[in-house]
Amino acid sequence: MKEREALKLALEALENYKYAEARTIIRKALAKPERKLLTEWQPIETAPKDGRRVLLARHRWTFEGSWCEPHEGRAGWYPISTVEEWQMREEGPVAVSHWMPLPEPPATQRTPASRQRPETSDRL
């Protein structure tokens, strides 16, 4: 149950003088681990090293990257654009100071068929 839904149920229970029910709902909501949204830069030492793509910072430069351990070359933080083993050997990892998780991609909204652009082959 999401936090907002739990609050609504607890409020409804309180308004109907169902204090025990409200207490149970609130306790369950508080027992769940707090979900921390990482929206601020974190020290690089706390970044995941499981290959997950994250936003990295080096001075005033930011880029998408991940921790890589290539077969040849040095393990470290590499920009996503550095995808080939030879690039990793030649360029080496980038020294970064901070990281932040990438945001979730936007939800896709389907465009009604009547408003969709025709395919290139359909326009010829």
How many helices? Answer: 4
Number of strands: 5
**Oligomeric form of this entry?**
single chain
Q: What shape does the CA trace take?
A: elongated
Using only C-alpha atoms, the radius of gyration works out to: 24 Å
Q: How are the strands of the biggest sheet laid out side by side?
A: 1-5-2-3-4
Describe this structure as you would to a colleague.
By secondary structure, the protein is an alpha+beta fold. The protein folds into two domains: 35 residues; 60 residues, no CATH class. Helix content is 30%, strand content 19%. It contains four helices and five strands; from the N terminus they run ααββββαβα. The chain has a five-stranded antiparallel beta sheet with strand order 1-5-2-3-4, with no helix packed on it. α1 packs antiparallel against α2. The longest helix has 13 residues. It is elongated and about 70 Å long. The N and C termini lie far apart (52 Å). The model has no long low-confidence stretch (mean pLDDT 79).
